[in-house]
Predict the 3D structure of the following.
Amino acid sequence: MKKRVCIHYLILIGAIALGAILRFWHLDLKPLWMDEVITAIFSLGKSYNDLPLGVVFPLERVQEIFTFQPKVSCAEIAENIARQSTHPPLFFCSMHAWLGWLSPLGQEWVEKLRSLPALFGVGAIAAIYAVNLAFSKTSGLTAAAVMAVSPFAVYLSQEARHYTLPMLLITLGLLGLMQIQQDIFLKQKVRFFVWFSWAIINSIALYVHYFCVLAFLAQIATLILLIYYPATKSIKQIKRQIWFALILSISAVAISFIPWLMVTLSHFHRSETDWLNSPAHIAPFYQTLINWVLMVISLPVENQPLPIAIISGLLMLIFAIWVGRQIFLGLRVLWGTPKTHLATLTLLSFSGWVLLEFFAIVYFLNKDITIVPRYNFVYYPSFCALIAASLNKSQNSSWKVWRDGTGNRHTSSLKLLHPRTGLAQLSAKLKSKNLLIFFLVGVISSIFVVSNLVFEKPFKPEQVARNINQNPAVPLMVVMAYRDYQDVALGLSFALEVEKVRKIIKSEKLDKFAFFKNSQELSVWQQLSQLPAPAISQMNLWVIAPGIKRRDYPPQIAMSRFNCTIDSRQHYRIGVPYQLYRCM
């Protein structure tokens, strides 16, 4: 018995260790993109007021912008967030404390910035193990392994953003939900300590990410469904206690969020929340299916040669169909087995309610959030738990149907049906083989994620930097014509990559960068014409201008004694347009 327990926990430690390796591997390989720059600004204790806007500064000084401010309090960070962003403050306060522990940040500041989300991602592996203990210990191990090698979970863990922390908190909330379900239906009692812990977790989650309100509402709806579920009539004698605990918990969470409520309402009306497009007919449905596939397999498709993209796409489709069949067969057994029926119902209900909320946002608020895979962190923990539990049961289900051959549905396991035959052992071997294939595909997919071949960074800062650095010997000036603070963050992501490539050839001392606000009152072209000419004979001027069409770039820009002429062959657009002017 002790040997089995030892092996069990060794496997758990191995799954967590593998997950940690995949999450911390090459944390600094990918460029910081716009959202991560926003994280860096506020987490370092700064705001947009501290940035060099409206002036030309040496490119080599861009790293000085990302310096840690140790004396900034959480209250000051929250104030900056309230005025200049659209998020709750708790994640940024946590990041500031974390970076303070790791100070001095040095040249590895990007890796350190991403290390806390990676750590939260590792914590979610342990949490999902605990959730799936409601099915079995083996299911718990499978859940830990599924999340450890999930390319989607690895991708979120390597983002310097508030996705893995709310995912961890939602997983802990599901753990509390499963405990409540087991207490009231198996033990016929209400433990207020469990309800209190569940309420605290959800209160914290609301201060980390606004989407956590969707998870909280889905948990409430699931509890109400369980209370009135036909198969749970035995709880009549404690129903009043359940309702009291539920109302008390909801009230506590709501009251705890009152201090940030007015800020939340103001955030919903900010222009930064209007970037999502309206849904295109049924596109959100197949986009959701694609997002589910990306949770278990992600092969290189983006910006790949057509043959590689086609082969990768076909392999992903074949694997998705195979895994989908395994999950369907496993869910059928879990649903039909009395011991696992309520746990399955709980997770299915939570997932279903969140998906309904997503589609309500899509079709009633006209914001297609299904085009953004990362937002699926809200229901990913429940999906992961169901996938793991299903994979443990799927092979038994398939052999059971083959053995019966009558079309009748049975809920007993194959081992119970055939205790003296070798089919049970054969089924176990096949199940192990299927699990091995699943995990191997997950590891390969995660390696692609870590290597920046899958889930590429939006706006591709590294590619923009390569295009801008076409003439390494010619001094460079890059101008970001910004409309709002998000454009500023986007410009900084480009500046970091340009500085990196120019530093290699040791020419960044002559290179310049500038942020000029582009408005009707004062255009970026007017501001450029007022600049004094630099003390050089020639220069490449790149103008990044979000919202400007190609035809709106003027053919020439007069800059003191410099005359900058547009190079019509050097116009690019990767999310935003950028144009080269040759100045002499």
Summary: Confidence is low (pLDDT under 50) at residues 396-421. The longest strand covers residues 562-574. The CA atoms of residues 15 and 369 lie 31 Å apart. The longest helix spans residues 306-336.
